[in-house]
């Protein structure tokens, strides 16, 4: 058996499924092994921005027969491969069979079903990726020095001066193996490790129904967040300044402002970072390269009493 996961989302779980047909698994692994030097990348070593990144395939048991030239977890359709076009074509073929494997239920399917709509969306994004592969880079990251300072909350929406806490950028906390895959952009933005891949409104039984600014915003309000035009009292310390964006009809994403006066974020199961899709340090999430997350929904405050899950 073979687990497949498309690295594409930030707020919701990625599409994932299990290929249980052993003949299909052997055929795929054989084809990958024949071209491994050109088509295989290591997960997380290619483009790591917002939107489609790669397709990750992995063994589901430690005694599974596996070709020696292929890592037991590898990526296709990635800028980490030597031949991006060939690697992407293989990834496309894997994704094309997504709906045939919906019968094996996974936890991710509750929020991200592997249906025809999801298959078509992923294929469109893979085609865009293949037509114009994003640059392969690793932007410089600052050292971590945990501390918190209080500063005025300044953004385009605020008429009043509100005070918020700006913590130092500390990606190392979020990029540990026991934390990174289980916490998303909402966890990072609120500085709350829940290990639940937090969803707006879920802690209060009021999850949003559509990936739109109004729906996700209303779910955030239920969790206890407020617009940045509403100041929170000192008793709500730490009060974080967040920004929220939407990939229309598809996903949400959050950013948090740091003491260094840039913004940090964590795309889904990927690493926390302070740069956008162009590798530029984020000074303003409104103008940053956010890939397909085109709708800017606003700035928000999140205080101590807010609860997310």
Mean pLDDT: 92
Contiguous low-pLDDT stretches (5 residues minimum) are 140-146
Gap between N and C termini: 31 Å
Question: How large, in whole angstroms, is the Cα Rg?
Answer: 20 Å
Order of helices and strands: EEHHEEHHEEHHHEEEEE
Helix content: 10-25%
Identify the strand order in the major beta sheet. 7-11-8-9-10
Number of strands: 11
Percent strand equals 15-25%
The profile of the biggest β sheet is: 5 strands, antiparallel
Principal-axes geometry comes out as elongated
Class based on secondary structure composition and strand pairing: alpha+beta
User: How many helices in DSSP terms?
Assistant: 7
Describe the structure.
The protein has 309 residues and is of the alpha+beta class. The strands form three sheets. The protein has a five-stranded antiparallel beta sheet. Strands 2-1-3-4 form a four-stranded antiparallel beta sheet. A hairpin with a 3-residue loop joins strand 8 and strand 9. Helix 3 runs antiparallel to helix 4. The longest helix has 16 residues. The protein is elongated and about 60 Å long. 41% of the residues are buried. About 2% of the residues have low confidence.
């Amino acid at each position: 058996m073979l687990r497949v996961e498309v690295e594409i989302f930030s707020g919701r779980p990625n599409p994932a499924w299990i290929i249980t047909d052993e003949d299909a698994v052997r055929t795929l692994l054989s084809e990958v092994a024949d071209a491994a030097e050109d088509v295989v990348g290591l997960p997380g070593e290619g483009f790591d921005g917002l939107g489609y990144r790669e397709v990750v395939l992995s063994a589901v048991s430690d005694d599974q027969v596996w070709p020696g030239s292929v890592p037991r977890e590898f990526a296709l359709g990635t800028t980490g491969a030597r031949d991006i076009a060939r690697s992407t074509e293989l990834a496309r073929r894997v994704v094309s069979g997504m709906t045939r494997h919906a019968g094996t239920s996974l936890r991710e399917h509750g929020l991200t079903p592997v249906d025809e709509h999801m298959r078509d969306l992923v294929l469109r994004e893979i085609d865009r990726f293949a037509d114009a592969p994003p640059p392969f880079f690793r932007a410089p990251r600052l050292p971590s020095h945990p501390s918190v300072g209080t500063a005025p909350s300044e953004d385009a929406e605020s008429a009043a001066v509100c005070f918020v806490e700006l913590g130092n950028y500390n990606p190392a906390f979020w990029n540990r193996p026991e934390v990174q895959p289980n916490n998303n952009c909402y966890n990072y933005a609120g500085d709350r490790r829940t290990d639940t891949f937090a969803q707006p409104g879920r802690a209060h039984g009021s999850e949003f129904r559509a990936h739109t600014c109004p729906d996700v915003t209303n779910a955030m309000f239920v969790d206890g967040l407020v617009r940045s035009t509403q100041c929170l009292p000192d008793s709500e310390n730490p009060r974080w300044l967040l920004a929220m964006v939407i990939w229309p009809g598809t996903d949400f994403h959050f950013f948090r402002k740091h003491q260094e006066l840039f913004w940090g974020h964590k795309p889904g199961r990927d690493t926390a970072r302070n740069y956008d899709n162009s590798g530029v340090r984020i000074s303003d999430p409104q103008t940053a390269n956010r890939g397909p997350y085109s709708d800017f929904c606003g700035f928000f405050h999140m205080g101590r009493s807010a609860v997310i899950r």
